[in-house]
């Protein structure tokens, strides 16, 4: 069976859960962030390394496309860079 897309959901509630997202290289991927708490500065998520930034309205899933062309360990964080998570592509 050939996988045609990877989808992962990250819950944003005072931190990122899960904090590490594992993806396979070369398979298109989406990460959906769902903010369930208005705590802290988690109303924005961004990653310079993965070239995305998106606002996270409360209880509204926001999906970003993650490039999987390169193997590596890529960080994402809140707008103030106080909370972070990682995307690991292998």
From TrEMBL:
Residues 3-89 form the EfeO-type cupredoxin-like domain. Pfam families: Cupredoxin_1. InterPro entries: Cupredoxin, EfeO_Cupredoxin. This is Cupredoxin domain-containing protein. It comes from Lactiplantibacillus daoliensis. The lineage of its organism: Bacteria, Bacillati, Bacillota, Bacilli, Lactobacillales.
